[in-house]
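Weekly modeling sync, notes
Attendees: S.R. (lead), two postdocs, one rotation student

Agenda item 3: backlog of single-chain predictions. S.R. asked that every request posted to the team notebook include the full sequence so nobody has to chase files. The rotation student volunteered to paste the first one in as an example of the format we agreed on. Action items at the bottom.

Example entry:
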Amino acid sequence: MSGTAERDPGLQPERTRLAWRRTTLSATVVTVLALRTALGGGASVVAVVACALCCVCWFLLLRVAHRRIRGLAGVSVPGALVPGYAVVAAICAVGMAGWGAVLVGVG
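Predicted structure, as returned to the notebook:
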């Protein structure tokens, strides 16, 4: 195989787009469960704050995923994920897990 041959991405952009959609779907489920936990029964201040922060993380993750999905649409060779967006997505995922753990501990 020659080093000058063009890279054939195959279905990689579509798989990446679907992975982002699965990520946002699972983050949405976590956020809905956080809302249900925080607001169901006696809502404490800690639970409401944890839920609000979980919602902020969900929104930021949704924005990053939407931007990435749009970037992959109609492109035969996808560009790399911007490092800043990758950091935001990682912080949001860890934040949602942490605030979810706080909600489980409070509830």
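Discussion: group reviewed the output briefly. The chain has a mean pLDDT of 85.
Action items: rotation student to repeat for the remaining queue; S.R. to check formatting next week.
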